[in-house]
Amino acid sequence: MSSDSASDKAVHADEKGVHPAAAGKVNDASDVIVLSHATFASAAPRRRGPLGIYDHTACQVALLGLVCFLGPGMFNALSGIGGGGQVDRTPSINSSIALYSVFAVMAFFSGSIHNTIGSKPTLFIGTLGYSLYIGSLLSYNFNQNGGFVIGAGAVLGACAGLLWCSQGALMLSYPAEREKGRYISIFWVIFNLGAVLGAAIAMGLSWHSTSNTVSNGTYIAFLVLTALGAFVSLTLKSPGKVRRTDGVPVVVPKQMGWTDEFRGLIRVLHTDPWIVLLFPLFLASNWFYTWQFNIYNGLLFTLRTRALNSFIYWLSQMVGSFCIGLLLDSPRLARRTRAWIGWGVAICIVFAVWGGSYHVQLGYTRADKPSEGLGSEYYRTDVHSPEYGGLAVLYACMGLLDSITQCFTYWLFGAMSNDLAKLAHFAGFYKSVQSAGSVGAFALDKDGASFMAELGVGWGLNAAGLIIALPVLAFRVTETTDALQEKTVEGREQDIKQIVDKVVHENN
């Protein structure tokens, strides 16, 4: 179908309030229906009162953020302290390699699993691994069983692949196009509030501790919170009952066979290969955590200072995601303009933060510390040390870097589709490649690469990922995502047409 004919049909939809597809004008299996705002403006209004608030897509994304607040948020709080809060980083590093290796494989196929069993079951299963992982760290304090920590990490990798696939699909399919940046920021703020709270708990419990490891009480508190996350995931509304603020319903994919869904994964890659140009950006998005958490925060600071730094890091993520969300949804700017400005902000902060990090890294090497990465207290900066202020500001800027680049990445591939099934695959690709990057970073650290080499790789990947993504901004991002021009998994256009016909019938 030509772009001219698609535009003509979209114009008719706005003029008459009914899209031609509602009358059955679907030309072939490659066409998908545009759902016009006029068609659904009065369809199935939300309930009033508390139930109306619960029905709102912003509330659903907030609940999704709460799930990740209680699961990945607690995990991030421990990771941000360095070495999972342990004196010996080795079990945490080995576990992280297992975690992200399994995560990378599971996430790649998680879109097919999501589309087969549904969003809520996928999300619920995904929450279960976090309690097991934190329980393994608690167990390690008693028996030093590194094998259990590694096994728990592998299980968490499988669970996390499912959780983040469902999260990405729901977060990007619930908002209208004009709201995606804000919804991403809503999620990111709540999600990172979990890490802020977790870091505050760790800081409070370790402030007067002379030990360099997280206490049992801290792990128990985190264990309880992660268990609550599984319960909260069950409170979300079924996606098939959700309508966006513009009246457009979220079309849930029919549950097809596993073979069909895996074919759909390949079809998404074949029909929208632009997503592959974002893979380097995906790869870079978590690579720097090893350097930031273990080499910078984990080695340069005392335990209580590391906990405070973690608190500052995740708090700055909340600020960064809020600001970039407002920018990416600015009503005064065209979507393509917002894409370019967002890219410019991201590339500037990449060079500013990594430049400052390079300056700090010049002051110490791996040889300055014992092989297990401990070092004496003499070398560790405390809250009251005179040099602490500048180092804390730099760490806060690292949090800004993470939130801005990740939120921009989500927004970028969210601008390529509004379809729940397709976004599930995109989110799976994102987390798969991202996790593969984490494996590479942890392996590089474990093999004893110089700290400067690890910094250089992280910096280079961050910059290269944004540069390689430029063709997507130039040629793939449009002012609106026209579903008539979007290729999704086979059969989705018929699903959407049925929903259109039903709503049009209700309005008549």
Automatic annotation (TrEMBL):
It is a multi-pass membrane protein. Its main location: membrane. Coiled coil: none annotated. The chain crosses the membrane at residues 61-81, 93-111, 123-142, 148-174, 186-207, 219-236, 273-291, 311-328, 340-360, 392-413. One of its GO terms (molecular function) is transmembrane transporter activity. PANTHER family: ET TRANSLATION PRODUCT-RELATED, UNC93-LIKE PROTEIN C922.05C. It is found in: Membrane. Pfam families: MFS_1. This is MFS general substrate transporter. Keywords: Membrane, Transmembrane, Transmembrane helix. GO terms for cellular component: membrane.
